[in-house]
Design goal:
This protein has 273 residues and is mainly alpha-helical. The protein contains ten helices and no strands. Helix 1 packs parallel to helix 4, helix 4 packs across helix 10 and helix 9 crosses helix 10.
């Protein structure tokens, strides 16, 4: 029963929190309060009724339109809710009933919010990135002081088996490598191609992923390259166009969290090691 109820319960909670993620994604970049006014239609400003605020289901029953004015409601709202629910389930399946599941949920949830804000604004807000890093460091310190597996989510041996050491080294390397790439790109091309927000985000991943945070940069770059090539072939842009990199780093972080060791073993095997 636990094996069934655990992911189901997490999925439901993820959907509910996905609704709040939509609020943060919309209001935070605009400097609006996250608590007031209550959820309302952006067109007619009529408050959303409680029975119209059920994640995904309400959007489907209303056929994607406001009950009061009939204006279309973006399908992105249920998409964010579904993504949140799926990420919560993935975290629960990956780490089981443990503190690491809670840490992974926080990690995935904040990455989801940051990704959509980046898509909208081409910015990764410093306060949210700082919250991500701060919560990760708290989890690392709890693990360091209690010897309970909390964070980083992916462990390695040797000196880096200590949570605090793994977090610091992972954050410094991920941030440092990305900063170096940004500097080289800027020097060669004469323009910025890698935002400081991305550098800060990668550094903030150190407490959650340890040394594996470095791999996020490379996995995220693969996702971004595939997207850019596909977009170019479809005539939707060119390989040199500017696009938000945060969502691809988030995808890379989720992938590394779920299958990081397997990805590293596969990569190493390419060189016969």
């Amino acid at each position: 029963m636990v094996q069934v109820l655990w992911p189901v319960g997490l999925g439901v909670l993820g959907l509910v929190f996905g609704s709040f993620a939509n609020v943060v994604i919309w209001r935070f970049p605009r400097g609006e309060s996250l608590s007031s006014p209550a959820s309302h239609c952006p067109a007619c400003e009529h408050p959303v009724r409680p029975f119209d605020n059920v994640p995904v289901l309400s959007w489907l029953l209303l056929r994607g339109r406001c009950r009061d004015c009939g204006v279309s409601i973006s399908p992105r709202y249920p998409a964010v809710e579904l993504a949140s629910g799926a990420l919560w389930v993935l975290a629960g399946v990956r780490f089981g009933v443990s503190w690491m599941t809670a840490v992974a949920i926080v990690f995935f949830y904040l990455l989801l919010i940051l990704s959509f804000i980046d898509l909208d604004t081409m910015r990764l807000p410093n306060p949210i990135v700082a919250i991500l890093a701060g919560l990760g460091l708290v989890a690392v310190l709890v693990g360091q002081l209690t010897d309970v597996a909390v964070a980083p989510l992916l462990a390695v041996g040797g000196v880096l088996s200590q949570p605090l050491a793994a977090a610091i080294v992972g954050g410094l390397l991920a941030g440092g490598v990305s900063l170096g790439i940004a500097a080289i790109y800027s020097g060669v091309r004469g323009r910025s191609g890698f935002g400081m927000g991305d550098v800060k985000l990668l550094a903030a991943m150190g407490p959650f992923l340890g040394i594996y945070a470095v791999g996020v940069l490379f996995v995220g770059s693969v996702f971004a390259t595939v997207w850019a090539v596909g977009s170019s072939l479809r005539g939707g842009g060119s390989m040199s166009m500017k696009f938000p990199f945060g969502p691809f780093l988030a995808l890379g972080a989720v992938a590394m969290t779920l299958i990081g060791p397997q990805v590293v073993r596969w990569y190493v095997s390419l060189f016969g090691m």
